[in-house]
Amino acid sequence: MDHSITKTLNNAILKLLRPLVRILLRNGISYHVFSDLVRWVYVDVAFKSFDIPGRKQTSSRVSVITGLSRKEVQRLRALEIPVDEDIPGRYNRATRVISGWIRDPMFLDEDHNPLNLPMEGIVAFSGLVKKYSGDMPARAVLDELLNIGAVALQEDGAITLVTRAYLPSADTRAKLDILGTDVAEMIATISHNLDSMNGDPFFQRKVSYDNVPAEFLEQFRTLSSKESQALLEKLNNWLATRDRDASPGVQGSGRKRVGLGIYYFEEDFENIVPRTSQGDNK
User: Could you give the CA distance from residue 129 to residue 98 in angstroms, rounded to a whole number?
Assistant: First the structure.
């Protein structure tokens, strides 16, 4: 690899790892645990994505391209990395119910705002869950939405939608799962756009300025949140009419997962400027 590309990629990796390592240390994940996971992923990706067409991938070749010993490759292949399947399932159920609540006319008032729903009735929360979460018990879905702060119970027992998106403010496990999902999607998009063989790049844009007074941040948070939510709801409505689960009558070939993610960021400018080695040692 070209030395300048290697240097640039190393710098990019350092930028990527800093916020990740903060999260890992904050949650008690040691370097050794992280190192084991990284080695396992190296082997897994090498076997699945870097084989030679027409030839079976071997531990010897994976050893060469990963830099790990053949013995280590074989050891890692035998490991079963535990995956928490419960969190993604809860995420999908919650997002489907919230999505149906904000776009389905049956559950909207005259101003197209989500209705307060009783648990049971002609137009009720149980009906919303049945329509958008299959045979999942309505009480279980309600508990999940209450747990993440997406809904609130009124004194008369009615259920009110508090947030128009899946935002697990009180569920650390769910927030950490979003770390794995959303960051992986963003990096996959960048990977796609870096591959010269892909002639059709995915949309990848951002807007930022680095000399904005702190007094304007609250205004920008409000503006960006409002405009972003409006765009996401518009795209949600478009996709829902073209998704086989949300609209069973949709015809077509293949099965694709598609979407658009938006994120907000802010930080002190001083934290962006790279520190010198001398500064790091102080």
Answer: 9
Ranges 11-15, 26-30, 42-46, 65-69: which has the least confidence? 26-30
Q: List the domain range (segments joined by +) for residue 104.
A: 86-161
Q: Would 180 be classed as within a structural domain?
A: no
Q: Could you read off the pLDDT of 35-80 as tens digits, one per residue? A: 988 999 999 999 998 888 888 899 999 999 999 999 999 998 888 7
Beta strands per DSSP E along the chain: 151-153, 159-161
The rounded distance, in Å, linking the Cα atoms of 146 and 98 is: 12
User: Which residues on neighbouring strands pair with residue 88, listed in sequence order?
Assistant: none
**77 with 90, same domain?**
no
Q: Is 85 exposed, middle or buried (0-12, 13-18, 19+ CB in 10 A)?
A: exposed
Q: Specify the DSSP class assigned to residue 62.
A: H
pLDDT reported for residue 175 = 74
Q: Is 225 helix (H, G, I), strand (E, B) or coil?
A: helix
Q: Return the half-sphere exposure (C-beta side, CA atoms, 13 A cut-off) of residue 251.
A: 0
Please, what's the largest Cα pairwise distance for the chain? 69
Residue 150: both structure tokens together: 């997406």
| Model confidence band, residue 129 (pLDDT cutoffs 50, 70, 90) | very high
Residue 206 token pair: 């951002």
> Who's near 157: CB < 8 A, 6+ residues apart?
118, 119
Instruction: Write down the pLDDT at residue 160.
Output: 95
How many distinct structural domains can be found in the chain? Answer: 3
The answer to whether residues 223 and 242 belong to one domain is yes
Closest alpha carbon to 114 in 99, 125, 101: 101
Residue pair 123/107 in contact by the 8 Å Cβ criterion: yes
Mean pLDDT, rounded, of the chain = 86
Q: Cα separation of 204 and 18, whole Å?
A: 22
